[in-house]
Specification:
The protein has 280 residues and is an alpha/beta fold. The protein folds into 2 domains: 76 residues, Winged helix-like DNA-binding domain superfamily/Winged helix DNA-binding domain (Arc Repressor Mutant, subunit A); 158 residues, Rossmann fold (3-Layer(aba) Sandwich). The protein is 58% helix and 9% strand. It starts with a helix and ends in a 5-residue tail after the last helix.
Length: 280
């Protein structure tokens, strides 16, 4: 049986424009197909409820209910913890399976980005009048560190915030009106991160969330939410799509701050050379 994504790809060339918009929403955010109503999905896609139902029928489902049932089953499968997924049979060709899965993670993550939200997030991250605080769950700590380091090379006022809770509270106590909190976490969410995001929002910060669903607790208090696809070829979630989004954000900030960022990078390079920190 073909899964939902494969069915959409098979019909992509022949989809009418309105149905294509619905399909793009579904591919970009699988939780929309799993949990949204017909009316909600239609509104997100700028289409009608009838268009959503027609797409379900075109893809071979017994109406919207049939499509949603498969979407929920697929999402449940993806959200199972690694301790359960380790028992699943793996593809014999792990390299091929990984290449296919990671390419899909990157493509679908970036294709789902709302351009208006992306531009607003970049404007906030590039504004030197706003301090930036990057928080991330333990599994996403590497992505958080990469993004914080990249932004710090481009502009001042960037801080990586990590637990334990007293340290997080102490850091966020210095949030000012309009500062930016970049929060990164995927299911199963660490409890302290949604609480930190809520605190930041209450203090007047702009919150940018990078997560796996618009229904994520991070999204509840976010001004902009970017959903990432994190399906791994094995038992563990992939961070490749998340890293691609972080790269896109840092690249856009660099482009926006080209002159001042160039001077800052020159100063950092000069300091490195003075200290002999790097070999030629």
């Amino acid at each position: 049986m073909l899964d939902l994504g494969t069915r959409i790809e098979a019909h992509a060339a022949s989809l009418p424009p309105a149905e294509r918009r619905v399909a793009e929403v579904i591919l970009g955010d699988p939780s929309a197909a799993a949990f949204a109503t017909v009316a909600e999905l239609a509104r997100r896609a700028g289409a009608s409820g009838a268009t959503v139902v027609r797409l379900a029928a075109r893809l071979g489902y017994d109406g919207w209910v049939g499509l949603q049932a498969e979407a929920r089953e697929r999402l449940d499968q993806h959200l199972r913890p690694a301790v359960e997924r380790i028992h699943d049979a793996l593809d014999d060709d792990v390299l091929r399976a990984t290449a296919t899965r990671e390419a899909e993670n990157v493509h679908r993550t970036l294709a789902a980005v709302d351009r208006g939200a992306f531009d607003r997030a970049v404007a906030h991250l590039a504004d030197p009048k706003r301090d930036v605080f990057v928080i991330a769950g333990d599994a996403q700590a590497g992505i958080g560190t990469f993004l914080a380091d990249a932004l710090d090379l481009l502009r001042p006022g960037v801080r990586r915030v990590a637990g334990p809770a007293p340290s997080v509270a102490r850091a966020l106590a210095h949030l000012g009106q309009g500062d930016v909190v970049m929060a990164i976490d995927l299911r199963r969410y660490e409890a302290w991160i949604p609480e930190a995001v809520a605190l930041a929002r209450a203090r007047g910060a702009q919150v940018v969330a990078v997560t796996d669903s618009v229904l994520s607790p991070l999204a509840e208090h976010a001004d902009a939410t970017f959903t990432v696809l994190a399906e791994g070829a094995g038992p563990f979630d992939s961070h490749v799509g998340t890293l691609a989004l972080a790269n896109a954000l840092s690249s856009a900030v660099a482009a926006r701050l080209r002159r001042t960022a160039a001077r800052r990078l020159d100063e950092v390079e000069s300091a490195w050379q003075h200290l002999g920190a790097l070999s030629d």
